[in-house]
Every structure is written in C-alpha cells, then in structure tokens.
Amino acid sequence: MLVSERIGQFFVEGDSGRDRLEYTEYGSGDAWVVLLHGQLMPRRMHQPLARALAAEGLHVVTLDLLGHGRSDRPADPLLYSMTAFAEQVVALLDHLGAPQAVIGGTSLGANVSLEVAVIAPDRVRGLLIEMPVLNNALEAGILAFGPLLFAARFLPFTVNGLRLLTRPVPRGLVPFWAGIALDTLDQHADSVAAVVHGLFFGRIAPSSKQRRGITAPALVVGHPADPIHPAADAAMLAGEMPRATFVRARSILEWRATPDRLNRAAIGFALGCWQTPGRARRAGR
C-alpha cells in the first residue's frame, strides 16, 4: 500500500536563538506515532518502519532532533540534553496539533521517548522502545563515545574529513543501510563534540523510580550480544514499567535485515494503543 510522504519543519526557541527542526510525515489521520533516531543518525533510518506503520493506517512522523540529520546543528553543548530533546518532541506534537502520540525510538531515541513520558505523560499514548541505554551500558558507552568526543574536539579534521569523503556519494546508488551509514558519517566536528559533550555529562535517562512511574503501555525490544545496548537493560526496563511487554530480537540486525516479525509486533502494539483506549495489545513475542 502506497502512503503519502511529506517533509515539514518547525522552529524551537532557545537561549541562543531560534533553531529549525525537520521531520517527515507518513500517512494521515489522528492515530499518531513519532519515531526518533539513534545518536548522530538521521531520521531516515526509520523510513522502512514508518512506511510499514503508515500502511496500516497510522499517521507516522520521523523527526531529526537538534544536531542531527537535516535539522540545525548548533555547536553549543548546553543545547543538548535528554530533557531538551524531549521538549522538542512535545513541540513537534504542538506544531502538528497532535494531542497524543505513540512515541518510540532506537538507542538515543528510546531514551528520549522515556523522557517524554516523564515530562509530558498526558501526551504519550504508548512507548515503542528499542535498545534503551541504561545502567548496564555505562562502560561500553564510555568506551564508544569518549574517543569520539576527543576526536571531534581535538582532532576535528578526522570528523570533517569523513564528511568530505562521504558527502559526494549518491545515496540512491548504494543500498539503503549503506546510505544511512554514509549519512551518519556526514557530520561537522563542532556539532558532534557539542552533542556528545551535552549527553555525556548530562542525565542519560529517567531514574529507575521515574521509570516505574510511567503508566503508558510500552513495547520494549532488546538485542542479544549488543554491549552498548545490552538486552539486560531492555529487560530491566520492561520489568520496571507496569504495562510493558519485552520482546527479544533474534540478533542486532533482525529489525534491519529481516524486519517482518518485529514490524508485526510494532504494528500490533501501535494499533492496540489507538484501538483500545488506555490498553495496549500485547504484541507477539
């Protein structure tokens, strides 16, 4: 089934001025779903899932958070935090005129979704969480993003050089996920340093007490053998939230390479959030 796709933009006001955020809408109607990308990745990473959800009648929006994709990329680390990202999602809902949405995302996007559920619980119809970054990911996160912060801050030619190499490659000539990788490498050193700095030294996720207070239905997907997003974090989160269902992916690549099973789980969950007010359909494991 073909669905309409539209690109839009809106602006958020901050201490340093006005910043532009860009998004893509898929489908139409009042059953809203917002999908959020991983750290430094573009919103286009969720295009396949967005199309699958929209084909079932859901109104899906993918957003480039500040510092990512085609949104503005200021170089001030004070602009980047989980709370600031969550406020951008609420601003998106206000811009769209959406009273509520199923909020979901991957990695960074998963944590931002949890933050939205804490700061604006009345706007969250449900949570679609993949690869949350919580207690068990601390050491791997430091090892992964510490060198990136150092390189972007003190060896900016490494980040900017990758951008010069990857930007000329036509995205239409490479496989979809290769294009996403190229987009992820298309960075400015100063904004990368700001994003990683802001997140590195800020709050990564709501506290366990706050997570236990999230009453929205949730579908939590965890991956095996993923040190930065350990399945133990996803399982722990599903155990903390009173209305969560945990689904274990068969591999890190399942939702990218063979997405049908997890797409069906996500579609069933999102439709359940809208078809039965206040109750989520428990998606198949």
Description:
Residues 277-285 have low confidence and may be disordered. With 285 residues, the chain is an alpha/beta fold. It has a single domain, classed as Alpha/Beta hydrolase fold, catalytic domain (Rossmann fold, 3-Layer(aba) Sandwich). 42% of the residues lie in helices and 19% in strands. It has helices at residues 47-54, 82-96, 108-119, 138-154, 156-166, 176-185, 189-200, 208-212, 231-240, 254-257, 260-275, and strands spanning 5-14, 17-26, 32-36, 59-63, 101-106, 124-130, 218-222, 244-248. Residues 32-135 form the AB hydrolase-1 domain. Pfam families: Abhydrolase_1. InterPro entries: AB_hydrolase_1, AB_hydrolase_fold, AB_hydrolase_sf.
Q: Point out poorly predicted stretches.
A: 277-285
Range of helix content: 40-55%
Task: Determine the number of helices (DSSP H or I, runs of at least 4 residues).
Answer: 11
Q: Give the strand line-up of the largest sheet.
A: 1-2-4-3-5-6-7-8
β content, as a range?
15-25%
CATH class: Alpha Beta
CATH superfamily: Alpha/Beta hydrolase fold, catalytic domain
Structural class: alpha/beta
Using the alpha-carbon principal axes, give the shape. globular
Q: Kindly report how far apart the N and C termini lie.
A: 25 Å
Order of helices and strands: EEEHEHEHEHHHHHEHEHH
Could you say what the CATH architecture is? 3-Layer(aba) Sandwich
Question: Strand count, sense and closure of the main sheet?
Answer: 8 strands, mixed
Mean of all residue-level pLDDT scores: 94
Rg of Cα set: 18 Å
CATH topology: Rossmann fold
